[in-house]
Amino acid sequence: MQDEVIFYTNPQSRGRLVRWMLEEVGAPYRTEVLEYDGTMKAPAYLKINPMGKVPAIVHRGEVVTECAAICAYLADTFPQAGLAPLPEERASYYRWMFFAAGPLESAITDFKALGVEPDAQKQKMVGYGTYAAVLDNLQAWLREHTYICGERFTAADIYVGAQITWGVEFGTIEKRPEFIDYAKRVTARDAHRRATAKDDALEEEKV
Q1: Averaged pLDDT, groups of 10, the chain, 207 residues long
Q2: Which end of the chain is more exposed for a tag (fewer CB within 10 A), N or C?
């Protein structure tokens, strides 16, 4: 199929986020499951993503990697899904999608995964400043907005929503009321349920 998306993933990866996006836009797609330290590092896949990581997509002969980029690409490429920002939503859409891809993920990785907490001097160097500042900033926004762009669900809610949902579930993001409520809203969608069921089934096949 000319418009088919080839989706490279592993059910124990951020590929779950991209599958959710694919289910939301309704794009025809084919799943290629790769194994860590196996097919993910094989020459054939390294031609697609030299980083040897998933997820990645190939669409119309073009490669897109990085979850935020994939979400933005699919929203723009399949506009009928209504997940791309309206002109008046673009500022919030891009601001918070890139906030989650940059400061939020970096703060979580440093503070929670690596046990790194920058001192006062280094806080001036890192983009996120402090882990607490990142969470406070995001919490304040969600306190005043149903979704990232206001009252309408967009692709930004898939990317930010997945980050918050996983963070709350695995303890890398504090269980603040705004985060819990927002996670419940975004994961109640049918596309999220379908995507989760498909990835869970892939995981069960390995057991």
Answers
A1: 90 98 97 97 98 98 98 98 98 98 96 92 93 97 98 98 97 97 98 98 85
A2: C
